[in-house]
Amino acid sequence: MLLIDGTLLPAMPEPIEPAAARPTRPSEARLVRPVRTQIEWAPRELDAALPPDHQARAIWALLEQLDLSAFYADIRAVADRPGRPASDPKVLLALWLFATKEGIGIARHLARLCEDHDAYRWILGGVPIDYHLLAEFRVVHEQALDDLFTTILAAMMNAGLVTLDRVAQDGMKVRASAGAASFRGASSLEACLTEAKEQVERLKAQREHSEPGVSAREQAARERHARERQARVEGAIAQLPAAKAAKERQERTLAKPKRAKVTEPRVSTTDPTARVMHMPDGGFRPAFNAQFATDVESQVIVGVGVTTRGSD
To answer: How far apart are CA 85 and CA 128, in angstroms?
Structure first.
């Protein structure tokens, strides 16, 4: 009891301890969770994303000093004619040069890097490309690319970066796309050629009376495939003399026990220039022998060649 101003008050109750709160379950918690599918607009300058001393800038600066007129000669989109603008060949050159330095030689891989990697995006600078354009550019301008690499090598020699005092050469077997079953002898190749010609003529005759449900595009694709097969078989027949000469050379140079195992010359109808070679794993498969000549001091590749001989 308490007495306040002469008034008797009841005693204060004892304080009640609050019950312990139970742990919060993860499903009950209110959280700000990540949403990685939302679109963000972030201002970003490509030129600021690349260091000033990056090798991609050096490659671009070098190309700006070279005569690249051979790569522009076939462009039909000009100022006084209609048509969509072409992608700058200088950009395609810089992409392939930088990719080659990085050990990349596949157009699809290079196209993906142009979307994800800052160095390739800097070289691209928004120019539209795809892997078809990259692959076609390398095939169409093969001679111009060889001349360009020769010019670059000469510039490096003039600057003392490459001396060519000592050059090392080595080879590497590269698996061909041809299968073992595609190799045929002379009589089989002649039969294949006859069959391929008949197929081409048959498809030409069907052009006026095409099969139901076959579009003009599909019909054209069939004709193109038949013509390509005929061209491959003709190329295989043209390679027979070289294959025969190689077999004759084996009969002269091999030891007597191995001479009896030399078979008749055969050529692939899939890849006529491929030859069966002894691979590093001990097996025998259709392949090519890529030869590299390298400056010993700078480790710069100064020469590349492809041969059908198994030995270096």
So the answer is: 10
Please give the span between the terminal C-alpha atoms of the chain, in angstroms, as a whole number: 113
* C-alpha to C-alpha distance for 62 and 6, rounded to whole angstroms: 104
Q: Tokens 């008034």 — which residue? A: 7
pTM above 0.85? no
Measuring CA to CA, how many Å separate 170 from each of 146, 196, 291, 311? 20, 40, 6, 10
CA distance 227 to 109: 30
Determine the residue type at 84: R
Consecutive 10-residue runs of the chain (312 residues): their mean pLDDT? Answer: 58 70 81 80 83 90 88 83 86 90 87 91 91 91 85 81 84 86 86 87 77 78 87 88 83 79 84 85 87 86 83 74
Cβ-based neighbours of 264, under 8 Å, separated by 6 or more: 185, 186, 247
Distance between CA atoms of residues 312 and 310, nearest Å: 7
| E strand intervals along 53-166 | none
In the block, which residue shows the tokens 């354009």? Answer: 133
